[in-house]
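User: For my dataset I need records formatted as: sequence, then structure tokens, nothing else. Please produce one.
Assistant:
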Amino acid sequence: SFAYFTIKDRLPQILTRVIDTLHRHKNEFFEEHGEKGVEAEKRAISFLSKLRNELQTDKPVTPLEDELPDAALWNQYLDYQRNLASGNGEPSWFQSPWLYVECYMYRRIHAALAQNPPIDNFDVFKEGKAQNFFESQEAIIALCTYFQELLKNIKDLDEKQLQEELFKLLQVSLWGNKCDLSFSAGEDSSQKSSPLQSLENMIPYMLVNDMEKVWLLLVNTKKENTEKSNVRVDIILDNAGFELVSDLVLADFLLSSKLADEVHFHGKSIPWYVSDTTKRDFNWTLKQLQAANHMWMSRCGINWEGNLKKGVWVYRDHMFWTLPHAFSSMAEVAPDLYADLQKSNLLLFKGDLNYRKLTGDRKWEYTVLFHQALNKFHPAPLCSLRTLKSDTQVGLKPGQGEHIQASEPEWMVSGKYGVVQFDAAV
């Protein structure tokens, strides 16, 4: 399965890159922290080399030994996996659910640094994320320019035109999800061309297109909410770099078109899956945009910083997003987060990992309904914007998956296909 190749090839590659990154920063650690920095770097590398060996030789998954706030939840989850194994011995790297061991690896990478001050705040994936941003510069300029031009006459657009613009920006945000560094094991995955020019050609690759449902939900909510509270949209973020910029443009459009009154962004509280967005990445991106020597890029950055200051944009992270649990257990494991999401009018889940967690990462029949695969996770109406990079997919028409499979055996893992898949939560 694709899971097997991920554990066998991709994860050790990612670990090797992390070790390499720490090696390369040795002088920087020395300059900043003296001998203590170098010692910490050596300890972290030794911890990670041991981890890589455990992975490659299919050793049992071991409990976390650090004192970080989520360690107890991880160790409870390991007990749960042991009970699932029903006498097959200890869960090990190749004998466990893919989602679990992949998340576990990133949590152990975090522990390798967190347990080794003074380099405990070093993000081993930071350079890759920055590089993705800079290499996607042309696409970012094209998108910011398009959007700032759109803002000039947004008040004059009729409903049909607003709908067209929403659909465009939803698609840019969807296909922005191709820029994923964990998928390419950290190789370049930047967006080179203007993302708006290729949208027409991408339509055939959208396996599920529920954009109309998203539009109707937003328009009807707005009409119903004339007197009442604010219309709130939440975006559960995926990758930093170009994809994040595409999400920010979509968020700004929702506000500027008055389809929403506030947007809440949810990021990761620790570096995750190579290119996932942390608070540091979020703030760094706004700073880079503001400082850009391109008029429309810096305008976007300045406006977006303003949205945060005014409180119409809110950024938050929660430990739950970096646990191995499927979202169906959120109400039990993180009731505070579930209660917060229930206040939203629409949840937009970006990317493949969120999709895997929405559907429990199971090998479903393609025609199983999305609503069913969510396994009672319905805090609010939700929509997944996801390009396929793992072999789980639901909600397809009869024969649709088999038809593509016949000509493209790799269709589920190539990132070439995408879905905009909606669930009304009722």
